[in-house]
Amino acid sequence: MPEMRFVIAWPDGREETCYSPSLVIKDFFEEGATYPIRDFLDRSRKALTIASDRVEAKYGYPCSLAGRQLARIEEAGGLFLSDVEARVRCQSFIF
Known about the structure:
Elements: E1 4-9, E2 15-20, H1 25-28, E3 34-36, H2 37-59, H3 64-78, E4 87-94
Antiparallel strand pairs: 1-2, 1-4, 3-4
Helix pairs in contact: 2-3
C-alpha cells in the first residue's frame, strides 16, 4: 500500500507535514488549494478514515498512524474554529 505525506499551511502560517497510509488524500485535496477550516477538517476525517480502513482490509487492523494524524489535525484545527475566515492550504504532496 503506497503511503504519502502532504504538507499543509495552517491559518497562522505554520506549515505541517502530515501522513497518510494511502494515496486517497489526493481524492480529497489538491496541491495549492485552500479550504475553509471546517471543510478541511471534514475532508481530513473522511480521507484518513478511508486510508485506515484500507489498511484494515489488507492487514486486519486499522492504521494507528492515520488515527494519530487525524487526532493531531483535529487538535490543531480546533484552535481556528472560531474564525470563520480561517483557511488551510494544501501546499504539496510527497510520495
